[in-house]
């Protein structure tokens, strides 16, 4: 899937990630987030869940990514314990100079569409630092709700919200 968008004069394109993007994805991940992963982790996710793994390109450079996973597990949304197929947003980030252009929204929308249409996932969830308001706002805008607090989820002791949305 590919589409082009322009906001505030900056054009960008959302497309499926390729193996040749992994070095730049790792660079963005390390610049943007304290949660970092080894090279093979990105490659495994790309190979396994390629259809829902997207990058944003601008000025011929990858400037953002979303790395997903598909899992079976208990629903985060239904009242009774029910096993469902769920999309899991493992990591999402946009280079600082490209933020607030709609890229995070476009990446998440593209991945959620693929989670539903390609992998038949019924819902999507993620963890986010309770202090990460930009990300929490983005997720709320796309229909996510805070489902529970995961105490001391991060290595530095900060709590996470588990947020989930129906697909
Ligand atoms: C979270 C992140 C991916 C958002 O990417 P983005 O491309 O800037 O997001 P968008 O431009 O699509 O913004 C969508 C909405 O999110 C909210 N938002 C984004 N940045 C915000 C900020 N700095 N403050 C408050 N709300 C913000 C707004 O509601 C925004 O809509 P608006 O611009 O119409 O007001 C980006 O800030 C980022 O890479 N952060 C560092 C990595 C990170 O925290 N990842 C999430 C880990 S769980």
Walkthrough of the structure:
With 167 residues, the chain is an alpha+beta fold. It has a single domain, classed as Aminopeptidase (3-Layer(aba) Sandwich), CATH 3.40.630.30. It contains 4 helices and 8 strands, in the order E-E-H-H-E-E-E-H-E-H-E-E. The protein has helices spanning 22-32, 39-48, 103-117, 133-141, and strands spanning 3-7, 10-16, 54-58, 61-74, 83-94, 123-129, 145-150, 160-166. An 8-stranded mixed β-sheet has the order 1-2-3-4-5-6-8-7, sandwiched between helices. A hairpin with a 2-residue loop joins strand 3 (54-58) and strand 4 (61-74). The longest helix has 15 residues, at 103-117. The radius of gyration is 15 Å and the shape is globular. The chain binds coenzyme A (COA). Coenzyme A binds at residues 32-33, 92-94, 99-105, 128, 132-135, 137-138, 141.
Q: What share of the residues does DSSP label as strand, in percent?
A: 35-45%
How much helix, percentage-wise, in residues?
25-40%
Q: What is the helix/strand order? A: EEHHEEEHEHEE
Number of spatially distinct domains: 1
CATH topology: Aminopeptidase
Q: Tell me the name of the CATH class.
A: Alpha Beta
How many E strands?
A: 8
Structural class: alpha+beta
Instruction: Please state the second-level CATH architecture.
Output: 3-Layer(aba) Sandwich
């Amino acid at each position: 899937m590919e589409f082009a968008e322009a906001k505030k004069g900056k054009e960008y394109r959302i497309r499926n990630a390729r193996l040749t993007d992994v070095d730049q994805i790792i660079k963005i991940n390390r610049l943007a987030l304290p949660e970092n992963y080894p090279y093979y982790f990105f490659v495994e996710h790309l190979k396994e869940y390629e259809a829902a793994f997207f990058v944003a390109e601008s000025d011929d450079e990858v400037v953002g990514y979303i790395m997903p996973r598909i899992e079976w597990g208990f629903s985060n949304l239904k009242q009774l314990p029910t096993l469902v197929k769920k999309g899991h947003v493992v990591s999402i980030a946009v280079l600082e100079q490209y933020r607030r252009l709609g890229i995070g929204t476009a990446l998440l929308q593209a991945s959620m569409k693929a989670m539903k249409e390609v992998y038949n996932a019924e819902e999507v969830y993620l963890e986010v630092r309770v202090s990460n308001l930009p990300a929490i706002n983005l997720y709320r805008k796309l229909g996510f709700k805070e489902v529970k607090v995961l105490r001391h989820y991060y290595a530095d002791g900060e709590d996470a919200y588990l947020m989930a949305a129906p697909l």
